[in-house]
TrEMBL record:
Keyword NADP: no
Residue ranges of the region described as Disordered: 46-68, 114-169
GO cellular component, one term: eukaryotic 48S preinitiation complex
Name of the molecule in the record: Eukaryotic translation initiation factor 3 subunit D
Source domain of life: Eukaryota
Key words, A-Z: Cytoplasm, Initiation factor, Protein biosynthesis, RNA-binding
Matches recorded under InterPro entries: eIF3d (IPR007783)
Length: 573
């Protein structure tokens, strides 16, 4: 019989545990252990099928729910030393994955209640996005609380807000859309300022009634027969052979003449068009990119647009939660660029069609952009107006703006009142980017308010610009037309389904548009431009963030592109 030799045992009299470490265990790491640690189970037979061995920490393996970031005690038991980063801890999850439970019960499924959040868990709400001199009137200077424009450079993460997993369930799709800038930022461009939209919304400034400088052009009388147009008696939109150019500020002969005149003492002058001013006043509502060229000289500032600038075109569903997307297909008739061209074409023809060309009211001066010998002269009135942007008596800031009116109507007293004509357009309610719009041929007559409310939501920036332009021109009314494609697949043929007249101030109130806030933005940009040294600058709206940036550019920027466009036009002529 073999003998048994008792191994050497080290006893600790003063405490619990081994007295020392033997030589055979010298290079093996020690796992922390306490009497309170639980060893756990090798296999969990009570867990539902498909969940054994899942680490339930709010990720993709979470099958039964529970709060994200917490372990499910049924799914994962960690042995001793769970709080230590020890590679020698026992991991039972790999073994449990080989087990399966045979269920002989009926195939009735358990009823699961609660909605499913975006993170794949039931019973939770997912989460929320978070954003982040002597004066006259109520003007609030930008940077008064944060030390100027320099403090505006903060990240704009999650600006849309909303509950994840509920209303904004397609946020993942919208975040992947990267738009191109309206102008390429050159390597020699120097960024001077960056202004966030959240700060623009806090600006306020009140402007007194403007002063009329000159009246040019001619306007026709609005044809009231179009007030009776409806979906059952629609009118085909006709193509009118009258071009309507968008002449920029520096090429306007009237504004150029005013700029050449000597300024009064302590007067600083700013020149722009109503289109440019409306873009600035509604900048915080804009989503698509745009840019404005600023030319600074000794005593004046000129706001210009480039040839083919986005400012001169009409956007479609810019503010929709799911706006039109550019797929790169040139034949896509519902891309943002194609819809913009279509909307601009509709507005030009609508304004020319709904007036009576035989009843024309000539203004004090002829059209400054067309000679008397030309056969086709657009019927449009230009009102050159002067706005006072001064905040202190010692310094006077005058803003000269060219505004436009489209027609006149007879008031109850028999006097002529100016109106502006604009058209909303419907392309295809089933196409991507329709913004949940109703079919106008079915709902326009019976649910006009719902149709207008949807357009306010999807085209907030465009409608705000039209209201601002009407108020700048001093128009008494804004006439809106509802124009739709005769065939959703044909972008060249349209029909007028109805019209609606509204007062600009009342419409602005319905849209929650604060004119004082718009003037505060204009005042801030003008003050910033007047402090710049002489040169050329570009104000650019970021294509993907609610931010506008001011760049200093060389004086010959954009000149080559303009010369190429002029040569191309000369060749085609």
């Amino acid at each position: 019989m073999s003998s048994f030799i008792l191994p050497k045992v080290s006893d600790t009299v003063s405490g619990w545990g081994p007295a020392g470490l033997s030589a055979q265990f010298a290079d093996i790491p020690y796992a922390p252990y306490s009497k309170a640690d639980k060893l756990g189970r090798i296999a969990d037979w009570s867990a539902p099928e498909g969940t054994q061995g899942k680490d339930n920490r709010g990720g993709a393996g979470d099958q039964r729910g529970g709060r994200a970031g917490f372990r499910n005690f049924r799914d994962n038991y960690v042995p001793f030393g769970s709080n230590a980063a020890n590679a020698f801890n026992y991991q039972h999850t790999e073994d449990e994955a080989s087990f399966s439970v045979v269920d002989n019960r009926s195939g009735a499924q358990k009823k699961i209640t609660g909605f499913k959040s975006a993170s794949g868990q039931r019973g939770g709400r997912g989460g929320f996005r978070q954003q982040g001199g002597q004066q006259r009137g109520t003007f609030q200077r930008l940077g008064a609380n944060r030390g100027g424009f320099g403090g505006a450079r903060q990240q704009q993460g999650g600006q849309r807000g909303g509950r994840r997993g509920y209303n904004n369930w397609r946020d993942f799709d919208r975040n992947q859309r990267v738009r191109d800038a309206s102008v390429k930022v050159g390597a020699e461009w120097n960024m001077l300022e960056e202004i966030e939209f959240s700060r623009l919304n806090k600006l306020q400034f009140e402007v007194n009634d403007p002063e009329d400088i000159a009246l040019h052009g001619a306007v026709a009388t609005y044809d009231k027969a179009y007030d009776r147009v409806n979906t059952k008696q629609e009118k085909i939109l006709q193509q009118v052979d009258r071009e309507r150019d968008n002449v920029t500020t520096s090429e306007d002969p009237i504004l150029s003449n005013l700029a050449s005149q000597p300024a009064a003492e302590n007067e600083q002058r700013v020149f722009a068009t109503d289109s440019i001013i409306s873009v600035l006043m509604t900048a915080s509502r804009s989503v698509y990119p745009w840019d404005i060229v600023i030319n600074r000289t000794a005593d004046k500032v000129v706001f210009d647009t480039r040839e083919g600038s986005q400012v001169d075109y009409v956007s479609v569903n810019e503010n929709s939660s799911d706006p039109p997307m550019d797929t790169g297909d040139k034949d896509n008739i519902n891309s943002p660029s194609a819809l913009s061209l279509e909307a601009t074409y509709i507005n030009t023809n609508f304004a020319a069609q709904v007036v009576n060309g035989e009843q024309v009211v000539d203004l004090a001066n002829p059209n400054p952009f067309y000679g008397a010998e030309e056969e086709s002269v657009p019927l449009v009135g230009y009102r050159y107006r002067k706005f006072d942007l001064s905040t202190i008596e010692e310094e006077e800031i005058s803003l000269f703006v060219r505004t436009e009116v489209d027609a006149v109507v007879k008031s109850a007293s028999g006097e002529d009142s100016y109106i502006t004509l604009k058209a909303l357009n419907e392309f295809d309610t089933r196409a991507q980017g329709a913004g949940g719009a109703m079919e106008w041929r079915q709902k326009l007559d019976s649910q006009r308010g719902a149709v207008v409310a949807t357009e306010m939501k999807n085209n907030s920036c465009k409608l705000a610009r039209w209201v601002v332009q009407s108020m700048l021109a001093g128009a008494d009314h804004l006439k809106l037309g509802f124009v739709s494609r005769t065939n959703p697949k044909d972008p060249a043929r349209h029909a007028i389904l109805g019209t609606q007249i509204c007062r600009p101030k009342e419409f602005a109130s319905q849209m929650n548009l604060q004119i004082t806030n718009g003037w505060g933005i204009v005042k801030t940009v003008v003050d910033l431009a007047l402090k710049l040294p002489e040169g050329k600058y570009v104000l650019v709206k970021d294509p993907n963030k609610p931010v506008i940036r001011l760049y200093s550019v060389p004086k010959d920027t954009f000149e080559e592109a303009e010369e190429e466009n002029e040569e191309a036009e000369a060749e085609t002529a």
